[in-house]
Write a sequence for this structure.
């Protein structure tokens, strides 16, 4: 997956956020990025904080290990997750990024 890359002791994750959504969560892929819907408005860094908190919860790491590397004021962001391998992040996000295949007739 091109959205995830190993960088030193952590992983960089390319995300596309949609603020002011009806509910927060990982919503699949958006091109080469992971789409994340957020309830928060992009005011006073609230959406960035919610994005970090949501990713920490999904990946099972403390909130302090997730940070915004670039794109603080943009919908397209690069997030850094410290202390995980790219394979760990990919397996944790897999249930959110795969769409169920309908059964064959």
């Amino acid at each position: 997956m091109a959205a995830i890359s190993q960088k030193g002791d952590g992983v960089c994750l390319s995300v596309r956020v949609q603020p002011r959504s009806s509910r927060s969560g990982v919503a699949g892929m958006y091109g080469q990025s992971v789409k994340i819907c957020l309830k928060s408005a992009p005011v006073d860094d609230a959406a960035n904080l919610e994005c970090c908190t949501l990713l920490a919860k999904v990946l099972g790491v403390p909130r302090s290990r997730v940070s915004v590397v670039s794109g603080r004021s943009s919908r397209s962001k690069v997030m850094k997750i410290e202390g995980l391998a790219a394979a760990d992040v990919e397996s944790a996000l897999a249930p959110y990024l795969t769409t169920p295949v309908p059964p064959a007739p």
